[in-house]
């Protein structure tokens, strides 16, 4: 909410007030420049009128994504499946406009285990049997330890890294920008009490001009975040829009 609107939203009342406003969001800004704005929402299983406020032209909720593979995690489907569905339904369409895609990932949601296997054959992700039986048995043998969630959390994050890296390899050489944003810090059962709320933001693209503009505003090359942070989440919105607008 905070990132898409550019308004700091920390409680339900602020969000309810925001929904009554008439203002630009990141999706409406990109739509005004000819982009098709798509929300991939695998965790959404109920009406979402807020999607109209944000300005999405297409919303894929859990039911519409229509996952038939084995169940993993809180919402059954996996991040790799959703990315494969994004390509099948949107990115591979001929003569399409450029895309702005918003995708809240779900495979790192608590309880983190069992983590799905990574499937190198991306075409299998859209079939009812995306994994071999031995892969499933190995994955399902992992159970969350509610008094020590760190190993399960690391396994889930590792799966996310594998999935995102695999997706990038699938699109080597293509012209697109991937922005990876930490939604929130890990739970205290993983990170310990009184940890800061800072989250990492990574921008991956071959567009050197865009990267140079972000570096000039404080971004650092590489994968390891450095302190201090650049600001709160709502300050990232105008920074990104400024970098794109040039």
Explain this structure to me?
By secondary structure, this protein is mainly α. It has a single domain (2-245), classed as 3-Layer(aba) Sandwich (Alkaline Phosphatase, subunit A), CATH 3.40.720.10. It contains eleven helices and five strands, in the order αααβαβααβααβαβαα. The protein has helices at residues 2-5, 12-18, 26-32, 50-54, 62-65, 79-91, 133-140, 150-170, 188-191, 208-216, 233-245, and strands at residues 36-40, 58-60, 99-102, 178-181, 201-204. Helix 10 (208-216) crosses helix 11. 20% of the residues are buried.
Write the layout of secondary structure elements.
Layout: H1 2-5, H2 12-18, H3 26-32, E1 36-40, H4 50-54, E2 58-60, H5 62-65, H6 79-91, E3 99-102, H7 133-140, H8 150-170, E4 178-181, H9 188-191, E5 201-204, H10 208-216, H11 233-245
Parallel strand pairs: 1-2, 1-3
Antiparallel strand pairs: 4-5
CATH class equals Alpha Beta
The radius of gyration over CA amounts to: 19 Å
The overall strand count is 5
Strand content: 5-15%
| Regions with little confidence, pLDDT below 50 for 5+ residues | none
Silhouette:
globular
- Series of H and E elements: HHHEHEHHEHHEHEHH
Summed over residues and divided by their number, the pLDDT gives a mean of: 93
In which range does the helix fraction lie? 25-40%
Please state how the strands of the largest beta sheet are arranged side by side.
Answer: 2-1-3
Please summarize the sheet with the most strands. Answer: 3 strands, parallel
């Amino acid at each position: 909410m905070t990132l898409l609107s550019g308004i700091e939203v920390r409680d339900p009342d602020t969000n309810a007030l925001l929904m009554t406003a008439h203002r630009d969001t990141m999706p409406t800004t990109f739509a005004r420049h000819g982009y098709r704005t798509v929300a991939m929402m695998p965790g959404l299983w109920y009406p979402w009128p807020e999607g109209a406020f944000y300005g999405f032209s297409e919303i894929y909720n859990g039911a519409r994504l229509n996952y038939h593979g084995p169940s993993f995690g809180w919402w059954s489907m996996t991040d790799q499946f959703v990315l494969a569905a994004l390509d099948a339904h949107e990115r591979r369409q001929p003569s399409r406009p450029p895309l702005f895609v918003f995708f809240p990932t779900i495979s790192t949601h608590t309880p983190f285990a069992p983590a799905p296997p990574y499937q190198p054959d991306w075409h299998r992700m859209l079939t009812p049997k995306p994994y071999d039986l031995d892969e499933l048995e190995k994955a399902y043998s992992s159970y969350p330890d509610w008094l020590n969630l760190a190993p399960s959390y690391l396994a889930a994050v590792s799966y996310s890294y594998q999935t995102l890296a695999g997706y990038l390899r699938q699109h080597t050489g293509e012209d697109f920008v991937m922005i990876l944003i930490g939604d929130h810090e890990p739970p205290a059962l993983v990170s310990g009490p009184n940890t800061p709320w800072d989250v990492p933001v990574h921008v991956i693209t071959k567009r050197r001009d865009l990267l140079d503009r972000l570096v000039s505003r404080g971004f650092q090359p590489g994968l390891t975040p450095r302190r201090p942070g650049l600001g709160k989440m709502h300050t990232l919105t105008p920074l990104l829009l400024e970098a794109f607008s040039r």
